[in-house]
Amino acid sequence: MLNHKTIATHSGSFHADDVFGVGVLMGVFPSHTLVRTRHDELIDAADFAVDVGGIWDIERGRFDHHQRGFNGARTARRADGEPADGVGYASAGLVWSVHGAAYVRALAGSLGYPLDQDAVAEVVRSIDASLVQYLDIVDTGQGNAAPGIFGLSALIAQLNTNWMEEHGLTADAKARLQEDRFREAIAITRKFLDRAVIKKISQIRSLDIVRRAPRLLDGKVLHLQEGGMPWTHVVVDEMPEVQFVIYPDSEGEQYQVKTVPVELGSFVARLDLPKPWAGLRNEELAAVTGVQDSVFCHSNLFIAGARSMDGALRLAELALR
Q1: pTM greater than the 0.70 cutoff
Q2: SS3 69
């Protein structure tokens, strides 16, 4: 095949950085052959070499970081704004820095959500900051893995074969078992990566929807017609007049009235729901509010619900008084 690629990585035990790097290339080049080897002639013949070969050369598809003198690192900024070295690269970050955009475009396109160049770049940056750099940190010893066995790097490491499984196997059988585990690790890692990418795409796609959403009650209430949509960032940063957001719940059985935090990550709201509503449900809440289809108000006064949009809007109107 014209676009068939051979992807080489080292044999034996694997780590999250080589698993991730190979997985990204597999996503970008669906027609491929995987070669796990330490034989130079096979590595040299491959279109890509990940975490093996002793070369970092983008044009030649070489993504290793073990060679003497390697100092590849992300760009960071000092307090004075001047550039500085950030987190050093391992193979995961090297591959993502070159092929992350193609991976994101392919995944977004397969879902029917094409992205422009700026949006793709934002997804790539976000995934590197929230996921990929931590794989590099662990692999290169720049920081510790998450405690226990449940950080992603540690989880992938658990999939390696152990001496009991390998006992009595021929070299070929052992290699086949190791490759099966390696492919299993890739499937898990790509599932995790794909969900992270899709979540970021959903956040980007929601921005304009939130900005265009109707504003009710003199602009103090934002009405979103879909539940589960990320809205906090836009409302906090761009809509200082909005006090409450109304949206349908995930099951479509009620409309919820949510307070707006004073800043991202804060539990302090611009305006709390009324204290007399705290912890009330159904008839008790209806008796206090006069809204007959009231469902609940959280005891911490950050969310309430009614069975109809009219009921939710009436709760918001009462809370604004």
Answers
A1: yes
A2: coil
